[in-house]
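Same chain as my last thread, 284 residues:
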Amino acid sequence: MLETASTTPTKFAKLSDRTIAYRKFGTGMPLVLNIRFRGTLDSWDPLFLDELAKRFTVVTYDYTGLGVSTGTPTYDRASLAKDAKDLIDYLGFDKVVIGGWSLGGVVAQVFTATYPENVSHTVLIGTAPPGKPDVGGDPLFIKTAIHPYNDLDDEIVLFFEPKSEKSRAAARLSHDRIAGRNLDRSPIIQETVFMKLLSEAKDKTTIFPDPDGLYAEKLASGEHPVLVISGDHDIACPVENWLPLATRWKSLHLVTIPQAGHGPQHQQPVFCAETIASFVKNVR
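reply #2:
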């Protein structure tokens, strides 16, 4: 039987100092996806992953110490990128498409700059570029994100566009698809854990600190093609912060989803997956 995002089993990469939980299915070029703040293996929309798996070997995973991975958790960006590197080495991949959503998009950028030899393309969804943003996020995002449990109403605020009936309807469908998996689910991150991780952040005003500008310099070089998919009303990582970079980064492709928020790939899963596939196939 063909594996899908809802049926593929969770596997474990047993490393020397920790175990990383992951799922892998599909065929084609490896696409490694890094998850958002508070996210785990079961925070991705299965339809989005299934569409990607038609063209890629899709890999999702839980960061160290979160979900069902073991070890000491941290949201230090370099440490999260090392998680991806260790898993990629464990799986025996040489080059991958590295992708990520929100915090995971920052991880994908750090990975690209730190391990360029392992990257063919970089795919960023609902995330921020390096450095202090020109346009800040809406305080409503973090106020909602830190609720002990995020229900559908919270998800509409966090990841969709509440003012759009089309977006609210997409939120309900995505919520139900995510809830549909009924085996070895990865648990949500407990409030005490993510609050501790938040408290450890040195710079609480910048999603992607880059004080020396080194990450921006490497990513702007054009060595790796970069695709950014953003909602037109992302209250966490406003798309406006990417617009000035369109003429500065040598291989930045920017796609904006209308009437959408911080989770455009959950609102338009098929379109986003097909856009990613076309980008990887046709852009070098």
